[in-house]
């Protein structure tokens, strides 16, 4: 299943790199861009904000991930997001940045069930996980963090 959006270009800086962009290739394209960004900026502090379009309501997976899950397109999309996070973590390791980088994963995406819709209305919390050695400063500890 392919999810279509309004035809729009994908840009880098102000240059069009794909028009119209194909959502099926978006995760792989964004992952390549993120890896290249980290490589270009490895010698100085940087902030990389990487926001996945899937797997909440945008259900798609690129060709290498289609059919890899017993759970249909949703599972295929989860496999691809997992691969992407792995690529980012491997790049940080290869560049020697893993020990000095905070990786913060957060999701406000929840399953579309009646119960989850009610919970979302009642709560502003989103599941999160972060990786960074050490402890948060006093008074800054939050629920839902995971240190490795």
From TrEMBL:
Tell me which Pfam families the record gives: Sulfatase
Name the cofactor(s) required for activity, per the record.
Ca(2+)
Look up the domain of life of the source.
Answer: Eukaryota
A GO term for molecular function? arylsulfatase activity
Per UniProt, residues of the Sulfatase N-terminal domain are: 23-110
Q: Which InterPro entries match?
A: Alkaline_phosphatase_core_sf, Sulfatase, Sulfatase_N
Region annotation (Disordered) maps to 1-23, 123-148
Q: Where is the composition biased (Polar residues)?
A: 123-134
Record's family?
Answer: Belongs to the sulfatase family.
Name of this protein:
Sulfatase N-terminal domain-containing protein
Q: Which organism is it from?
A: Oryzias javanicus (Javanese ricefish)
